[in-house]
Amino acid sequence: xxRLRIVAAIVAALLTVYAVVGIAGLMKGxxxxxxxxxxxxxxxxxxGWWFVIRGWxxxxxxxxxxxxxxxxxxxxxxxxxxxxxxxxxxxxxxGPLLGIFITGPIGFIVGxxxxxxxxxxxxxxxxxxxxx
Length: 132
Description:
The chain has helices spanning 2-28, 32-54, 56-88, 97-118, 122-131. By secondary structure, it is mostly helical.
């Protein structure tokens, strides 16, 4: 588990550098696709640092919910953004790019944050049921 935390720290550090450099670049001129990629990198860096700092046992349930929420909502966003333009405007050849660069990453970010905030470990669920 220690090696996994070291690898996660390296990946999170690289994603953090990418996000910081990307934010600096966005301050010079806004680019929607660049903003989506920076937000996605920042979310993944946040999840990585969360795992590195707190360890697996303390964040296991919330991290699972965050990843599950990100994958499910991001997947739905990707599918809607990829196939939606194909149905509404079949002659537009750049329609699927909406799902790849915009709705997929936005869905992952929203799902990951919602999963992290709403997901609770079994211990936290037991405490909340006892206090009611």
